[in-house]
Write a structure and sequence with these properties.
The chain is an all-alpha fold and 205 residues long. It contains ten helices and no strands. The protein has one domain: Tetracycline Repressor, domain 2. The termini are far apart.
């Protein structure tokens, strides 16, 4: 049998995609490195050449998911005309669509996937914050917002939106979730000194 030798980056990508599939279908905690090896059809030495542990492989899977999200969201920012608020509305919608369209993101709400879930949220925040900061900066130039800290404001806002409404982390009741969703637009407007009602679209989304 002829042994197939692939370039390191190609093999690494194959391993990440296999791990992503397995983490999605049988949970991160239940997946072993041996499972990934068997799915890709590689030897132990090959997988450990690229990833020294399952924890390190998890980081690569999370990075892969976030990179796809950020790429789609960056495209929205680049292709959208209009004010900062127009772009922010579409950016939020793009982020929600990306999360809803990936089965692995929904699977992360299961208790067995808490490690991957938390890492994904943190990585997504770090990746998305500069996109939101760019639009906050534009809003300041347009006179819509007032802040000397666009990036830090973006990080605070995303932390609230992503973590405080996540039922995989907080066991909120429906009433508690609605109350927080209603409060967010007012809190963000206060932080950015934005016109009243300008972020009401967050509650509608």
């Amino acid at each position: 049998m002829v042994r197939i030798v692939k370039k390191a980056d190609v093999r690494r990508a194959e391993i990440v995609q296999a791990a992503r599939f397995l983490f999605q279908t049988q949970e991160y905690e239940r997946t072993t490195m041996q499972d990934v090896m068997e799915r890709v059809g590689i030897a132990k030495g090959t997988i450990y050449h690229h990833f020294q542990s399952k924890e390190e492989l998890l980081e690569a899977v999370v990075e892969n998911i976030v990179e796809e999200q950020i790429s789609r969201m960056q495209q929205v920012v680049n292709e959208t005309e209009g004010s900062a608020l127009d772009k922010l509305r579409l950016l939020v919608q793009a982020g929600r669509a990306a999360e809803g369209g990936d089965e692995i993101l929904r699977s992360l709400h299961q208790p067995g996937n808490i490690a991957m879930h938390t890492r994904l949220l943190a990585a997504a925040l770090i990746g998305q914050a500069p996109l939101y900061a760019e639009l906050i900066h534009q809003g300041c130039a347009e006179g819509l917002f007032q802040t000397e800290y666009p990036l830090e404001c973006a990080e605070y806002i995303l932390s609230a939106l992503q973590f405080l409404t996540d039922t995989g982390i907080y066991p909120w009741t429906q009433e508690q979730l609605i109350r927080r969703a209603m409060a967010f637009p007012h809190l963000i407007e206060a932080q950015l000194k934005a016109p009243q009602g300008s972020f009401q679209f967050l509650f509608e989304i």
